[in-house]
Amino acid sequence: MNIHTLDKYAKSLIKEAANNIKSSFSSTLIIESKSEANDLVTNIDKETEQYFINHIKRDLPDHRIFGEEGFGDEIHDLNGYVWMLDPIDGTMNFIHQKKNFAISLGIYKDGVGILGYIYNVMEDDLLSATIGEGAFSNDIRIPTVEIASVEQSIVGVNASWVIPNKHIQHEGMIKLLQTVRGSRSYGSAAIEISYVVTGRLDAYMSMRLSPWDIAGGMVIAKEVGAVVTTLTNEPINLLQQNTFIISKPGLHEQLLSNYIQLK
Ligand code: IPD
Ligand code: CA
Ligand code: CA
Q1: Cα–Cα distance between 228 and 218 in angstroms, integer?
Q2: What percentage of the chain carries pLDDT values higher than 90?
Q3: Superfamily designation of domain 3-141
Q4: Which residue of 4, 80, 221, 263 is surrounded by the most CB atoms within 10 Å?
Q5: Cβ(90) to ligand 1 under 6 A?
Q6: Which atom, in ligand 1's list, is nearest to the CA of 209?
Q7: Is there an atom of ligand 1 within 6 Å of 89 CB?
């Protein structure tokens, strides 16, 4: 399958999976906790991941799948084709709000992101990117992101950044929030990344994200010139959890050197 056929195939799976998710609103959800009480998963997260895996294994048997709910392959390297899938990013929103959740998917070939998708299911907004060919919101090309100053920025952070915590110096974050134009928190890393690449947010950061939260967004980010690193300005390792920042260029350096300090 060439990259354009693969792109069409991935999009058809995403759209069909989203229809199944929306149909589930009329049935009762089975909700469980994972690593802790507020780390939630539902039968629909699991069924959506299984939907992708069943199709990919049937149609592309040499492709491997790195999925959040663990129905895919055990991934210890990025050789060949690897699909990194979060079937529902923003499960808490899915359960409580029935909006602001996304299907997040990145397709990597020998460690290089070749196709990326973030589908905001309830807004019917499919962000997609093909390596070297730019990024799109549905059929509309997304322009390259512009340079932003700290003072004119809206940053995506949640409240845990400004209370004492074990990861970062919260005083620097208070200083940041006193300087920027505004802050927002949407409860889905994929949606927050989608807002940076489309210019609705100027930066988004997290203390810990998994490969499936960010793999699709990273392909899109590259196509529009948004900068992605860890909070210590290292490249992201997609075989493990990472700290994470995506930002407009210029702002990225300023945030890391003047405001964000890890403990
Ligand atoms: C979570 C969301 C959330 C982020 C968490 C993720 P999930 O993903 O993206 O915004 O803060 O770190 O784990 O569990 O809803 O797929
Ligand atoms: Ca997630
Ligand atoms: Ca998820």
Answers
A1: 7
A2: 94
A3: Fructose-1,6-Bisphosphatase, subunit A, domain 1 (3.30.540.10)
A4: 221
A5: yes
A6: 12
A7: yes
Atom of ligand 1 nearest to the CA of 187: 10
CATH architecture of 150-258: 3-Layer(aba) Sandwich (3.40)
User: CATH 3.30.540.10 occupies which residues in the chain?
Assistant: 3-141
Residue 1 has pLDDT above 90, yes or no: no
pLDDT of 97 above 90: yes
Mean pLDDT of the chain, nearest integer: 96
What is the Å distance from ligand 1's center to 5 Cα? 30
- Which ligand 1 atom sits nearest the alpha carbon of residue 186? 10
The model's pTM: 0.97
Mean pLDDT of 221-246: 98
Cα of 5 vs centre of ligand 3, distance in Å, is: 26
pLDDT tens figures, 107-153: 999 999 999 999 999 999 999 999 999 999 999 999 999 998 999 99
Q: In what order do the strands lie in the sheet with 140-141?
A: 64-67, 81-89, 102-109, 112-120, 125-130, 135-137, 140-141
Nearest listed ligand to the Cα of residue 95: 1
